[in-house]
Amino acid sequence: MGMLKLLSAALTALLLGQSSLALAQAPEEYGRCAACHLPDGAGLPGVFPPLKDRLAPIASLPDGREYLVLVVSRGLAGPITVADVPYFGMMPGQGGALDSAATAKILNFVATELNVSAAGWQPFTAEEVDRVLAKNADADVNQVLNLRQALFAQNPELQ
Ligand code: HEC
Within 6 Å (CB) of ligand 1, which residues are found? Predict the structure, then answer.
């Protein structure tokens, strides 16, 4: 990790302390995500991609739902572009610390509370998360990247 990224991570930790009051309704489990993506999901350009106003359209596509469950559970590594900003990071999978119900709860929070328009998608359930994880039992960070590339190539509007 370069010096700039270390500084950014320290800044993130500082910001986190100050802005957590603003989103008092966030489920406790979202705290794991907020450590990097920030309490309001804005992220840190070039370091942690934003989640705010991005997940509802992805959650309206079957392949997108599968992708979101796998990113949270298994993580993601490699080059991605979000809103024209390049990222080459590594998100550690959170599946070891989150059960399926917690994963569904977090995704539902991010795609509704952190999204201007939450229309067009159905809430995630623990059963759906279980199904996706069983179907992709061996998926690692690199395979999650492959899924993302296929998803975004077929649906360029998600960019
Ligand atoms: C340690 C920091 C860290 C934590 C904790 C973390 N993420 Fe991430 N997340 C990242 C990074 C870095 C990336 C981009 C990885 C890359 O560049 O390939 C990312 C990518 C993502 C993406 C993909 C965005 C896209 O446009 O495809 C989603 C969705 C996501 N994270 C959601 C979450 C959620 C939900 C949580 C909490 C359960 C979480 N993250 C926890 C660092 C983190």
Answer: 32-33, 35-37, 48-49, 51, 54, 68, 71-72, 76-78, 80, 82, 87-92, 94, 106, 110, 148
